[in-house]
Amino acid sequence: MQNAGQLSRRQILAAAGFIGLATVTGCGSGEDGGDSKDLSKKRHGAMKNYRAGQQFKAAEPLSFSVLHNNNPVYPMKDGWLFWKELTKRTGVTLKPVDVPLADYEKKRSVLIGAGDAPFLIPKTYHPSEVAFVSSGAVLPVSDYVKLMPNFRDKVRKWRLEPELDSIRQSDGKYYLLPGLHEKVKSGYSLSFRTDVLDRHGLTPPTTWDEVYDVLKALKEEYPGKYPFSDRWSTNTPFPCGALFSYLGQAFGVRAGWTYDNISFDHKAQKYVFTGAQDAYRQLVEYLRRLVAEKLMDPESFSQTDDQAVQKLLAEKCFAMSANPQELVQNYRYNLEKQVEGAKMEMVPVPLGPAGPVVLGGSRLENGVMISSKALKSDSFVAMMQFVDWLWYSDEGQRLARWGVQGVTYTRSGRQYRPKPGISLMGSDPDAPKDMQKDYGFYNGVFAYGGSWELVSSMFGPDEEKFQAAMARREQLPVDPAHPLQSFEQEQATLWDTPLKDTVIQNTLRFVLGKRPLSQWDAYLAELKSKNMQQLVDLHNKAYERFRKENG
Amino acid sequence: MVKPSRSYRVFQGVNGVILTLVVLVTLYPFANILARSFSGERQIRAGEVTLLPKGFNLTTYRIVFRDSMFWRNYGNTVLYTVVATAVAMVLTTCYAYVLSKKHLKGRGVLVGIAVFTMFFTGGLIPNYILVTNLGLKNSVWAIALPNAISVFNLLVMKAFFESLPTELEEAAQIDGLSTYGVLLRIVLPLSKAVVATMVLFYSVSFWNSWFSAFLYMDRTDLMPVTVYLRNLIQGATGGGNAGAGTEQLSQVAANIQSVTIVLTALPILCVYPFVQRYFVSGVMLGAVKG
């Protein structure tokens, strides 16, 4: 009996606790953005006639809090020239809240959830802002871009409206100010040991058929080795994320890192299921052939990046996915120490059935969310002008990337150079100072997007060659906007994940030969049983609706 | 003394072999990290390093020793561990001692409150709001106070105190000691084993913890070394996983990681063997007396 008495007391306690909690959380969510449309009282420190291309200078000294993603490669310092120069030019002091890069997203969620977020929340990748939309904690920035002349100017000049539409929510607004690119920047492609190719009279391939031929020829020379081993398979739901991504592009489908269950079929003018497309099957067949003929290392799909690179350095393979940084700073740098006469080059993404194209939609980069609290501040207008200047004006972008002319860089025409004694991304390993570590420029929090002239000014010789080749390719049109309403979103998420898992698992099983390709139809049937059609219909419905409502 | 039977000796033998294997498997990562920390970068990259260092070098140790932020964070870890352990020990001892008294009214409720927190928590965001509104953010108290009482440790200690003969305390009271006097001069000196165990439990967990610091600290110079290490490793291996925007993450040399891991684990490794004696008896006491 005594026991029962104790239990009930505990139950009362528990109940009291829950009620208490419910009250606390209830209060928290009751907050809302406040009345907003009238901005006339929020012009403290703002410029009267702020125009595109004009230097922003706050009428009075202001300061705004900003979430700062602290990169271990260039840990934040209070003494960075960037902070000082920014204050000098704009009259604004940024107060960074420093978050380690490793768990940036987690802390961001907590801060926003607790209503304690800084005004400016940069380094946000679409679609992670969607999670905060319904709580009202982040500002629907599309309502306020009228305060941002540089942003609007770039959107108009570079015809970015379709891309912006793709990040709109079902209310027709967007909640993230994305980084804007004038041109698509391609990041990843295949790299080859060109000295080995030369030795055997082979030339770097330009199409995927030639890739096959080259690997085949290498296999004949080195029967005991897999000529191609790949990486970027861990920490990502889709193994070999880079390879699938650029190989998919050659077939005109999204795969790997860019994989999305639904994609737009521009011929049929409707959404279709990506993993069930015929082009997707061709992509799988191609990779199956590489693995079946032992041209590609089957461990590619499971090994860590370190293991992969070790194979490359130990000459167990001769080709690997790369981006220009990895090529120069990792592969080439380490190969030089290890293998005499080793040369490594990255080829422009080989061409496939889709012809010389690049996938659209990648002209937006990560961007800035604005906390709804900022709207209550009387210097809201000045803040938006400041954001516009720093992230979207040519001058602001130049400052964030290159710093101060004559101090950190020199320029003649389109040619930018770091000042002697300053190293930029390993350009001069012996230099006493580093552009990122010691001055705070080219910091991923502030420097991204921009005109092609500015973006290409940072390229090393390898990247320049690569990007020049890629820039000549045609950009495929962007998928039209099809924002889901919140209840649809929940339903879609329930369908999305199992479908995606099925696609990824079976892609790997097909490629590794654990499931014969003759079972493709059975695989399609499995997708159907997992609500593939319903998901596609849902998105098509949303697409039609958005088209009707927004023209 | 009964002579052990043959089957028992076989069992002992098999046991010994299996446990030795387990020990080797457990030690291997340590040995490997240690070897890597002294090895040349080329040998690590080529995957040649297993148990012994290859291409011996101390350059990385020199580099890490020169990084002022590493030492600042290391100092923070020491400070947080010492303060938090001290606070935790005082509070846990007092609470456990009170709970061990059978004549205490409402003892069940007090135990219930503690046990309740084992199964239910307010959740991340309410906790964050609480700590922030109490003004604890960016101070050692944000780490020390919310984690001051570990219910598991509390129950072990309570069980230990209950096992002490009440006659001892009664005798002390007759000799004129107050309640605190009994605790400080009679009970605690007899509880060295459990106190040592608890100090070890708490200090290891505070030494290793990173999450509350990560949550409640807004500046790098307030972070403990675990966050520094985590950021370093994540920064080195996370490159490219999101596809875009990670281009700036250049590879942090493989042996910087190893060196940092070694330096972080070293103090705990040094302390462990000396406290282990108490550790075993302390845990056993709690277990048997449950």
Cα Rg of chain B: 24 Å
Secondary-structure-based class of chain A equals alpha/beta
Main β sheet profile of chain A: 3 strands, antiparallel
| CATH class category label of the largest domain in chain B | Mainly Alpha
Instruction: Give me the count of strands of chain A.
Output: 16
Query: What do the pLDDT scores of chain A average to?
Result: 87
- Give the rounded overall mean pLDDT of chain B: 83
The major beta sheet of chain B can be summarized as: none
What is the subunit organization of this protein? Answer: heterodimer
Classified in CATH, the superfamily of the largest domain in chain A is: Periplasmic binding protein-like II
Key attributes of the depicted protein:
heterodimer; A: 551 residues; alpha/beta; D-Maltodextrin-Binding Protein, domain 2; B: 290 residues; MetI-like fold; 2 domains; 0% strand
Structure description:
The complex is a heterodimer of chains A (551) and B (290). Chain A is of the alpha/beta class and 551 residues long. Chain A folds into three domains: 42-184 and 363-450, D-Maltodextrin-Binding Protein, domain 2, CATH 3.40.190; 189-358, Periplasmic binding protein-like II (D-Maltodextrin-Binding Protein, domain 2, 3-Layer(aba) Sandwich), CATH 3.40.190.10; 486-550. In chain A, 43% of the residues lie in helices and 13% in strands. Chain A has 20 helices and 16 strands. Chain A has a three-stranded antiparallel sheet. In chain A, helix 13 crosses helix 14 (394-402). The relative contact order of chain A is 0.14. Mean pLDDT of chain A is 87; it is low at 1-7 and 20-35. The model of chain B is unreliable at 238-252 (pLDDT under 50). By secondary structure, chain B is mostly helical. In chain B, helix 1 runs antiparallel to helix 14 (254-289), helix 4 (68-99) runs antiparallel to helix 11 and helix 11 runs antiparallel to helix 14 (254-289). Chain B is built from 14 helices and no strands. Chain B has two domains: 1-57; 67-289, MetI-like (MetI-like fold, Orthogonal Bundle). Chain B has helices at 6-37, 41-45, 59-66, 68-99, 107-119, 124-133, 141-144, 151-163, 166-174, 179-190, 192-208, 211-216, 225-237, 254-289. Chain A: Pfam families: SBP_bac_1. Chain A: Keywords: Cell membrane, Lipoprotein, Membrane, Palmitate, Signal. Chain A: This is Putative aldouronate transport system substrate-binding protein.
